[in-house]
Amino acid sequence: MKRSVILFALFVTLLAGFLRFYKITTNPPGLYIDEASIGYNAYSLLKTGKDEFGVPHPLWFRSFGDYKVPVYIYMTEGSIAIFGKNEFAVRFPSALFGTLTVTLVYLLLRNLFPNEKKKLRFKNFDIGVAEIAAFLLAISPWHLQFSRGGFEVNVGLFFVVFGCYILWIYWKKQSLFFLLLGLFSFSASIYTYPVYRIITPLIVGVLLLLFFLKKPSLRYQVLLGILFFAVINLPIVLFSLTSAGTARFVETSAFSEYKTKSLAEALLTYPTGIIKNYISFFSFRFLFVSGDGIGRHQIVNFGLLPLWQFPFLIIGFFSLLKSKLKIKYLLFIFLAVIPVGASIAVPSPQTLRTLPMVIPLTIIISWGVYAFLTSLKKKKQLAAVLIISIVALYEFLFYLHFYYVHYSKTNILDWGAGYKEVVEKTEKYQKKYDHIVVDHKMGLTYIYFKFYNDKIPIETVSDEWKKPQSWGDGHTLYIRPYYQDEQTTKIIDTVYLKNENKDVFARFWVL
Amino acid sequence: MIRKIIFIAVAVIDFITLRFWFACSHLEDRFYFSRFDMQLRLDDVIHNDTGVPYFIIHLFHNKLIQTVIDVVKEYILFWDPVFLIQLLSFVGFFGFIYGLYKLGIKKQRRKLFLIWFISISVIQLWILLPPPNPFLLTTGLIAVLCQAVAFYGLWQFTAQKKWYVYIVLLILIAVSVLWIFILPQNVYNYCIKQ
User: How sure is the predictor about A254, in pLDDT bands with cuts at 50, 70 and 90?
Assistant: First the structure.
């Protein structure tokens, strides 16, 4: 490997790592409920070998009415063993694999776009699609957002990219080992996040079909690979056929939105609904203007892709169509299949389930930047690079300003901020009271108590709850959110949110 | 003969698709960039900038930058595939993309492409300007200019005389017909009914 390649790989990895790890514990502000659940289950596995429900080393983790797939939780078990039970440990696997995805994309694209005739050259340094794409992915708001939270989908994306990279090596070396390793990596994505149950088999199917048709000498190996892929995914296929395995699908299914009375009506309604959902993922409103509007998935009123990339997406798309590169077919097929799984779910469009789209889109945009710059003469090229860099840098700094100054204040409730303080204050009062009761309107508080301090016994109660007379007066600590009608005489403490208004998150009452 | 039948079918679908747009009014309401609440939005954003140096606040939160961002965001929506599918139908959108591609790769047609692009940009900017804008005229002109490229694209596509060309078009026509059933509710997102 050339020295410049190693240096660039190192540079882009460090940049991606810095942007993904910097202040990761405090921003996003708080631990989202799924992160807390992952963290506690991982901790429980580490200490007892069982999940929160006492099941020893499960393959499927029961969680809030459905089941989680296992890879991220077992990874977190490792990071909790190293870093302890805290926010950093829960987010570490996502940030680490998010960083490594950038490096892998660079190495993969170095091989997929090797023969660009008119490389951009600046002071003995060649810049091609691989360099531009890796850099853009490192600073991509979409990828950064999901790398900085404990999102399983982000680790799944790493396994898909790694699978592609290994299968590319297989294409060159034709060794069965690489085929099986690549397919193992793809399978790992399926065991990391549910949406890959649909995306990954489609991508693997396309790649294996390509090998089967283009390399007749490899057909037996490919058939063996299909068998291997089927066998290691058999458990999740069988699980998906059970009611537990389909719980999440039923909960988020787009089909449940439509009330059809007859088969004919269903045949008309379902396809149009799915098509409508599918094209919404390619909407520029979704990609550039507003995203999906969910505060955990983005900074509200920001798109997933920076605005300056819009013309280069258009240029890249048409320029790739025109080019003779065969890889463009795979790129367009991958881009087309990724939203398939998300199209049958609601809400649609949704940023999380289509995170893998960030890779083909970034490659198309990079190709657009590359095609545009190489179409210019040297002097104009330098001027264009300067202008693009200034605009892109400004927009990136604008994004960082919003992320580090605004996001941690405006989206505090999206991330479950406040619960940690509730647990810490409860710790302080624990010894003074015989009973600790939490109002159900506080949400699934129990998981935060388990994650931050599983020694505090709490009871979650409904609106109708009345304190039993046998408990006596002054022995019960009652935690509930802010209500306007509350009488301050019984309130002993308050948890305020760390936003500009210092809003009340919860109050501690003595009953 | 098949080519002519397909073109008639596409023309009918496109006409029905466009009809929905004329059932409502004020396309410009959706796209028109409003400045009246900018000061309020800036005040609201700056509210979170406690402790941030003034030059950074001025650098990121000023009327010029906010105007540029707003206008660019609105402008991008004119090229939104979802908007174009709703304006041109599925098959029309396919023809539009193919037409743009064909116009772009042929050097002899680049001037034609440039004239088309400038014309449509003028109308788009007209819509972005403060109302009142003649809705029928602006929407009609945008639709006609896009339809022209779409039919050019479909003409070029069918000129290949390969079997798969007709399969692709038949699928797209079928999807377009299905789409017409859910179209009105989507158009509602882009224009405000009176």
Answer: low
In sequence order, the 6+-apart residues with CB closer than 8 A to the CB of A394 are none
Residue with tokens 């098509």: A275
pTM: 0.92
- Which residues is A509 bridged to in the sheet? A478, A491
Whole-number Å distance between alpha carbons of A485 and A313? 54
Strand partners, B171: none
B-chain residues within 8 Å CB-CB of A273?
Answer: 182
Residue A170 CA: distances (Å) to CA of A178, A179, A189, A359, A432:
5, 6, 19, 21, 65
State the ipTM, two decimals.
0.88
**Mean pLDDT, chain A, integer:** 90
List all residues 6 or more positions away from B189 whose beta carbon is below 8 Å from its beta carbon: B30
Instruction: Pick B181's closest partner by Cβ from A268, A318, A398.
Output: A268
- CA A98 to mean position of chain CA atoms: 9
Are A188 and A232 in contact, with CB atoms under 8 Å apart? no
Rounded Cα–Cα distance for residues B141 and B124 (Å): 10
Q: Do B48 and A405 touch (CB under 8 A)?
A: yes
Please work out, in degrees rounded to the nearest 5, the angle formed at the alpha carbon of residue A346 by the alpha carbons of A342 and A352.
50
pLDDT band with cut points at 50, 70 and 90 for residue B185:
low
Residues 6+ apart with CB under 8 A from B117: none
Angle between helices A129-138 and A3-21 (to 10 degrees): 20
* CA dist., res. B160 & res. B145, Å (int): 24
How far apart (Å, rounded) are the C-alpha atoms in residues A494 and A33?
21
Q: How far apart are CA A437 and CA A458, in angstroms?
A: 6
- Tell me, yes or no, if B68 comes closer than 8 A to chain A by beta carbon: no
CB contact under 8 A, A285 and B77: yes
CA–CA separation, A190 and A233 (whole Å): 8
- pLDDT tens for each residue of A89-144: 999 999 999 999 999 999 999 999 876 665 677 777 788 999 999 999 999 999 99
Query: DSSP states of A180-248 as a string?
Result: HHHHHHHHHHHTT-TTHHHHHHHHHHHHHHHHHHH-GGGHHHHHHHHHHHHHHHHHHHHHHTSHHHHHH
**The tokens of B182 are what?**
């859910």
Strands (E), A241-357: none
